[in-house]
Specification:
Blueprint (H helix, E strand, L loop, with lengths): L31 E5 L4 E4 L4 E3 L11 E5 L5 E5 L5 E5 L2 E7 L10 E8 L5 E8 L5 E6 L7 E2 L7 E7 L5 E8 L4 E10 L4 E6 L2 E5 L5 E6 L2 E6 L6 E2 L7 E6 L5 E6 L2 E6 L9 E2 L6 E5 L4 E6 L4 H12 L15 E6 L9 H8 L3 E4 L6 H10 L5 E5 L7 H9 L3 E5 L4 H12 L5 E6 L4 H11 L10 E6 L6 H12 L3 E5 H7 L6 E3 L4 H12 L5 E6 L4 H12 L4 E4 L8 H9 L6 E5 L10 H8 L5 E5 L7 E2 L4 E2 L15 H16 L2
Parallel strand pairs: 25-36, 25-37, 26-27, 26-28, 28-29, 30-31, 30-32, 32-33, 34-35, 34-36
Antiparallel strand pairs: 1-2, 1-24, 2-3, 4-5, 5-6, 6-7, 8-9, 9-10, 10-11, 12-13, 13-14, 14-15, 16-17, 17-18, 18-19, 20-21, 21-22, 22-23, 38-39
Amino acid sequence: MALASAVALSATAVVFGAPAAQASHPGTTDGLLSASNGTNTIRFNNGSTLRLSSGDPTITTVNGAAWAPDGSRAIFATENGEIATLRHNDGANYWWVSPPSPEEGPVEYRSPVYRSEGIGVLFAAKEAGSPWRIEAQVASGGFLPRQVTPADGKHYSNPDSGPGSTFVYQSQGGGADAPSGTSQVGVFDGSSFTTIADDASNPSISPNGKKVAFVRGGQIYVANIDGTGVVAVTSNAATHDHPTFSPTGTTVAFAQGTGVATALADGSQAANPVPVAGLAGIPSYQPRRTDTVARLAGQDRFTTANAVSQAHWATASDQNDPRQFADAVVLSRSDLFADALGGAALAAAKQGPLLMTPPTGLNAVTETEIRRILPVGRTVYLLGSPGAISTTVENQVKALGYQVERLAGQDRFSTSVAIANEINPNPTYVLAATGLNFPDALAAGAAAGSFNVPGSGQSAVVVLTSDYTLSTGTKNYLDRVAGNGSRVVGIGLQGAQATAPYNPIEIFGSSRYETSLFTAWAFFGGTNHAGLATGVDWPDALSGGALMATINGPLLLTRGNESALSFEPELFLDEHSGSLDTALMFGSAAVLSAGQQAPAGTWISGPGGHTFVQNPTNIGIVDIDRGTSSARSATAVDSSGVRTPEQIEAAVAGLKERLEQR
């Protein structure tokens, strides 16, 4: 619907490509107000300065800096029309977000903002001979943006993101290279584009998504998200631009003349906005959200697996339990990893935890957890033949009132194929990793499982190679599914070389830690959670990987017996900190040292810091601060949260280039 003009003002022709109003993220306090003005600095209203010190002569200015939801990173446009992000406390810690320009000609990118949960970013893009458009992509770890505005010949620019998939934008007519005429402000509500304000530009959406601020005739106005209830926020003689809401939504900051000022969003300070000393340029509030490091651990592998289960899965008899209700349990033997390596992907597909038991008899604490989360009559999946999990265990589970389905083959390789067929006989992706060791397959399990959560529209499985060769059963399986269109991905050098005849996407590094980094980078461009497990043993990573698959996060391997966090997970946590709000540590301090807790928290957090919790019971369910489900959050505009083969390959190539530059 069009906004009925409440105030008669002259039409305003707006130049596209100028920096947009900056995204407003929710918070209980308004944090610090910052401003960038095309120099190499971001200044704050407490007198501090963040100075870009890239050492790269092609990036010397910060234009339109906007903050991630936790304030950990600022995203901005460079003088060359590229998009980069900068760490909140390190002017040299920057990296690129915009993709390289294609061979057919350069692309100019402007007006970047983080999406509501930091997982995606929006920005305006334009090539010569084409109108401005708004694109969306994941915030880190890869390129390949998607156009999200209509290809109707209009110019679309200056996006600002609200809750979920909602965003506001500016549109304008004119020729392909030269926008002209009166501009409008519109809103995308997740399904449709609607103009809500004529003769308006540079919109900003409130943190709760109920209000929009915009510029008209050099003044700032606020309206309801449907365009009704227009209120003048400024009415003084100065020229105003670039409005942005504070995290609480009560205040609007904006450029006023050559400086920055604020006024209450209800219009009560319209005649006398409050100048902000020391700031000039485009304002943006830096949130002060506190992030979390959570350790999930017990006294042994059984109680650790239970702690992981209790972190996410509800008590079946308590209908008021806010956690997710399990539909199944995956049960693996506790003494050997071989048959269990495909279990994380299965657990996510069947919507339940992965628990462990000795081969000869059902572990008592495991039995208690099965009975807590799973209603009688549901299915418990046993991984492996009776030689792996005995018929005694099978009969004990049946005696509890559960259905039992055993997934087994003649060896670990054919067992992995049986698990894969149970997930989906024709999966979107087949991740192949060596079955003669555990690290690569554990990282692959979390990645594959993230496709299997209901609603993703895709599926993925893990099958095992015999190092650099394929067993007959695995080869027959790959022949069939590759012929039906499944894309093969080789995880680790062995997995990549063993599957060479299937032209796999190759994902491997120089060590198990680097391979887990590449796997995380390839499949998780944006996520609220990242898991950390020791790379020198497998049980905690096995149960932890099943949880990470369910809540759509990577499993990163670290040298657990060292006092410092390994470089590989540190790099992932740093560069994905704009979306990350929780780092999960699997296992006790005896296997994953206490000295790695603080670094993990530092790298995911902004100036609000982090808290540490032991064995929480609300992981991946509801984010209390934002009141939204954080399991499988939206990537850009759609809700799939999963990547295409082209995006996977682009992410791998980008990480290789980055590591070569170190």
